[in-house]
Amino acid sequence: MAKRDEFVDALKAQIDRWNSDLARCEKEAAGARADLRKKYEEQIATAKAQREKALYQLKLLEGASAAAWSDLSRGAEEAAKRFREAVAEASEHFAKRP
Q: Whose C-alpha in 37, 46, 53, 84 is 20 to 30 A from the C-alpha of 92?
């Protein structure tokens, strides 16, 4: 059970860090040129959708039985990976911004 709790806690902490990165992207998007802002907002929306999927998987994981833990943990890891990638993609565009 400790491994499970550690996994859930680590995933929550990582999601919190990505949320901070996403908030920074939102702030930067607000100050972007109009022609770039739409693209940034689309990337942020994609990241937010991935965040919702990751949070949903986390909620399932928290309530999972021992038998379902393995399958749900893989799903949660995949959802977290997609959220991380979406945030990284949005952040990357801000790093390259003119």
A: 53
pLDDT for the residue numbered 28:
86
CA gap 53, 58 in Å, rounded: 9
Residue-number span of the structural domain to which 66 is assigned: 2-95
Residues of the chain with pLDDT under 70: 1-2, 94-98
DSSP code, position 32: S
Can you give the CATH number for the domain in which 11 is found? 1.20.5
Separation of alpha carbons 98 and 82, rounded Å? 27
Cβ pair 76, 62 in contact under 8 A? no
Which two three-digit tokens encode residue 96?
Answer: 């390259």
